[in-house]
Amino acid sequence: MSDINIKITDREGVTHDVVAPTDMSMNLMEIIRSYELAEEGTIGVCGGMAMCASCQVYVINDPGLEPMGDEEDAMLAEAYHVKDNSRLGCQLHMMDAMEGLEVEIAPYP
Fold this sequence. Notes:
The protein is 15% helix and 25% strand. The chain is an alpha+beta fold. The protein has one domain: Ubiquitin-like (UB roll), CATH 3.10.20. Strands 2-1-5-3-4 form a 5-stranded mixed β-sheet. The longest helix is centred in the C-terminal third of the chain and has 9 residues, at 70-78. The radius of gyration is 12 Å and the shape is globular.
């Protein structure tokens, strides 16, 4: 089993130190849900299909994220509260290279 340490700032401005497994095929949206860092029904509304942007985060520290795919880019082009450092949590799959990742959960539309 392999875990990484990441920091997630919730929508209230509180930063949480989180341990995330890299061997369970989880994405950042699922980590946020499992730690209950966003109100139920306000994150992962589409189930992680890159179709709603409810799991949008702002990347504060990028230790080596995979490049954004076309679906994620298209969804963010239509989303609210988008910044240059916006990503969809459902598209960020936990892996060892993400050790030290820091994100802030974007406001819910």
